[in-house]
């Protein structure tokens, strides 16, 4: 019950940060979806070959789960680390928004490409191979972005305006980073093992 109250209080205290970051992310999705139409034939063909190869491997059970897990976890961890670092700088606020915007572009592009090129199969593929891990990635990424923005604003405004000493704040901020990285382990596991398993069910 106490944790639930703390979460609600956190959201209330940071509602404008969440609103801004959510709008930036959604704007990225819109931009990413429009970029699909500007692809030239060669790039489009290459992406389709990659998707077909992934589909074939998933349906035949030939995907290397350990390799996908490591790659996905490293990629997501890098994003967390970049945002963590930006939160330690006075110019981190706009750059964190840029990272979130780019992440939105990536997701919007992926979903739009699947919808346009694979039609009904693309919708199914999105639900079983893209959305499951992003149910973990996206909410926690947005939460982490809010935490990092607050850290950047804390440094920008001056720590003298806060009751929390700088050293304590940095330690708490870094511990949170490690916790978020651990959460992203779950997303990487879903991407590496659950999504390919769901693909096999289509056979």
What does this molecule look like?
It is a single chain. Helices cover 87% and strands 0% of the residues. The protein has one domain. The model has no long low-confidence stretch (mean pLDDT 83). The protein is globular and about 55 Å long. It has 203 residues and is an all-alpha fold. It comes from Syntrophomonas wolfei.
Helical fraction equals over 70%
Distance between the termini: 44 Å
Number of strands: 0
Strand residues, percent: under 5%
In the predicted model, the low-confidence regions spanning at least 5 consecutive residues are: none
* Largest sheet entry: none
Strand/helix succession: HHHHHH
What Rg, in angstroms, do the CA atoms define?
Answer: 19 Å
SS-derived structural category: mainly alpha
Bulk shape: globular
Number of helices: 6
Number of domains: 1
Q: Average the pLDDT over all residues and give the rounded result.
A: 83
